[in-house]
Amino acid sequence: MDISVDCVLFGFDGESLTLLLIEQRTDQGGPLSEEDLQMALPGDFVMEHEALEDAAARVLEELTGLDNVYLKQFHAFGSPDRVKGLKDQPWLHTFRAQPENRVITIAYFGLVSLHDHVPCASSFAGHAEWVDVGNLPDLAFDHNDITDLALATLREQLESKHIGFEMLPKKFTLRQLQSLHEIVLDKKLDKRNFRKNVKRMDHVVPLNEKERGVLHKPAQLFRFDANLTSES
Amino acid sequence: MDISVDCVLFGFDGESLTLLLIEQRTDQGGPLSEEDLQMALPGDFVMEHEALEDAAARVLEELTGLDNVYLKQFHAFGSPDRVKGLKDQPWLHTFRAQPENRVITIAYFGLVSLHDHVPCASSFAGHAEWVDVGNLPDLAFDHNDITDLALATLREQLESKHIGFEMLPKKFTLRQLQSLHEIVLDKKLDKRNFRKNVKRMDHVVPLNEKERGVLHKPAQLFRFDANLTSES
DNA sequence: ACAAAAGTGTTGGAGATACACCCATGA
DNA sequence: TCATGGGTGTATCTCCAACACTTTTGT
């Protein structure tokens, strides 16, 4: 039995919620056909003396160059036949020493901001891609199940665990925060009520600074302070 | 690397919240000393072609004889040194073919009612025991971390996921439901407000039946219907 | 009759919802 | 001056918290 980690890395750019997928090529440099190309979540085997969360962080670092990504374990997927699907055999037999082995994977979701810098977008020359979560293709193995649960978990934890800020720039506007919530929760929110609620949260602190270079009234900037989470 | 499942089985009898621990004996039938005795969570290696949840169910069935226990995966524990502790070496070297192996464990929590029948309380002649969660001893490996997270998860999900009913008899009174909540959440609740809330829940349905054989006014009985969870 | 838990309503405050207009900036 | 999003307050309603007495049964 092999152990891997898989990462569902969510990114937000102000417009849409995307996640990072990598291409599984089995063409081996030969002619590229549709069928050779399958998308999958970034993942890798856990190394012998490596903690699970270190493995997840390593996978992301190798792929995006980022090393301070918010990462959270959310489920282990271990169906005995999760790597037995027909569609996955070519890739397994190309890249795995023991393609028949059962693989149990520990899944993490990660959150990054795509506002300023677009991290990676592909460190391996076009092999990685940000895909809108509303428009995901069929993925390798059980990766569609994994992304479904990741999304459900993200939705559940967005409000209760203050994790939304991980997908915003360090200085953000209330509009950005609100559209993030609207897109993740997939419903429209009332601007005034939303702002009323935010103002009651100690951990969203206003800066003496405004947006610049926008073609409308510049917005107040805020930052997130994790230390102020309901303390005196 | 080995893969196991561990189960944190919670039981409620109307009085206290307990969990099932097994004794790890290393005395091998010789004289029994304090140090030979350590408590641990029930767990076992996952078999080659066995689904994770099947493995968890098997562990519980072997230990309690119950086979319809509510079981939910909540976390994977995989620190590289979680089975390297000094205190755990005797047991590992007695019972494990490869005691040095790293073990990654997928943890489940389970819920049972101890009202009517007390399931097991020990199928292996005194090797299993229900222990009050407020009074847990030092456990083997990282099992204290596992029980801590299990308890935190139970608390979080008690109200949101309708899982409390798994720890009550099929027909229960509002008093039983309330004390369960009070004990799990560790706070006193107002009787009238609690009942008001319950009456708003479609999935708690009153029966045409009352408690019998109690030395006070008999209470209305209710049952839980999972199908009526906010539907028309 | 007594002990023991069941059962029941009201009030005040806090948070949620719904809703429309003026403001500051860059082009 | 215009287009664009920023920023603000009030009324209503629902939900939560606090609180005490009468009822039914078994002994």
Number of strands of chain A: 9
Q: Under the CATH scheme, which architecture of the largest domain in chain A would be assigned?
A: Alpha-Beta Complex
Shape of chain A: elongated
**Count of helical regions of chain A:** 5
Low-confidence segments of chain A, ≥5 residues, pLDDT <50?
none
Average pLDDT confidence of chain A is 91
CATH hierarchy class name of the largest domain in chain A: Alpha Beta
Distance between the termini of chain A: 49 Å
Taking the sheet with the most strands of chain A, its summary is: 7 strands, mixed
How many individual domains of chain A? Answer: 2
Q: Please, what is the oligomeric state?
A: homodimer
Question: Mind telling me the CATH superfamily name of the largest domain in chain A?
Answer: Nucleoside Triphosphate Pyrophosphohydrolase
Estimate what percentage of residues of chain A fall within beta strands. 25-35%
Q: Label the structural class of chain A.
A: alpha+beta
Descriptive account of the structure:
- Two copies of one chain form a homodimer.
- Chain A is of the alpha+beta class and 232 residues long.
- Chain A has two domains: 2-157, Nucleoside Triphosphate Pyrophosphohydrolase, CATH 3.90.79.10; 169-228, Winged helix-like DNA-binding domain superfamily/Winged helix DNA-binding domain (Arc Repressor Mutant, subunit A, Orthogonal Bundle).
- Chain A has helices at 52-64, 89-95, 143-160, 174-185, 191-199, and strands at 2-12, 17-25, 37-40, 43-45, 70-77, 103-113, 128-132, 204-210, 220-224.
- In chain A, a hairpin with a 4-residue loop joins β1 and β2 (17-25).
- Helices cover 25% and strands 27% of the residues of chain A.
- The mean pLDDT of chain A is 91.
- In chain A, the strands form two sheets. In chain A, strands 1, 2, 3, 4, 5, 6 and 7 form a seven-stranded mixed beta sheet that branches.
- The N and C termini of chain A lie far apart (49 Å).
- Chain A is elongated, with a radius of gyration of 20 Å.
- The longest helix of chain A is centred in the middle third of the chain and has 18 residues, at 143-160.
- The relative contact order of chain A is 0.18.
- Chain A has five helices and nine strands, in the order ββββαβαββαααββ.
- The A-B interface holds A 1-3, 46, 48-52, 73, 75-76, 78-80, 102, 104, 106 and B 1-3, 46, 48-52, 73, 75-76, 78-80, 102, 104, 106.
- The first copy, chain A, binds a DNA duplex (27 and 27 nucleotides) through α5.
